[in-house]
Design a protein that fits this description.
With about 150 residues, the chain is mainly alpha-helical. The chain contains five helices and no strands. The protein has one domain. The protein starts with a helix and ends with a helix.
Amino acid sequence: MWDAVNQIKDEVKQTRNEVENLELVINSQKKASREYLIKSFYEYCKYLESLHMHDVVLGKVKELNEIYFKELGIEIKAVKKALNNWISQKRNNKSEAIADMSNTITLELVNTLKLFQQENDLEYKDGIYGYYTCEKLRAYMDQAKSD
């Protein structure tokens, strides 16, 4: 009887390991797919910029930002406040602060995100509040919550 129990335990352990390995593969594929999409979108926007289609690019950036804000569950106002904290601490120039504190994606927000991405050496300086920008801005968001 104990042999059967031990055999079942071993099978459960083996199955658990197989599931964990599959999850690792799936997660790496998701990340690779997301990276490909981000890079493709960035290249597409650069192409549109070269054609001087700035309004189209801004519209696409705003649309993608809306998706990320919803996906991340973060209010636009919170990001604006965090960016203003960053500006006051790192840039030390209050005139660069975001004035429109509405819950709306504005050109001012996009440009400030681009500046933040540039000064924090993020790969994409596109004004999109994606995962990498979110991670870099997190410390300033925590400060914004406590203010």
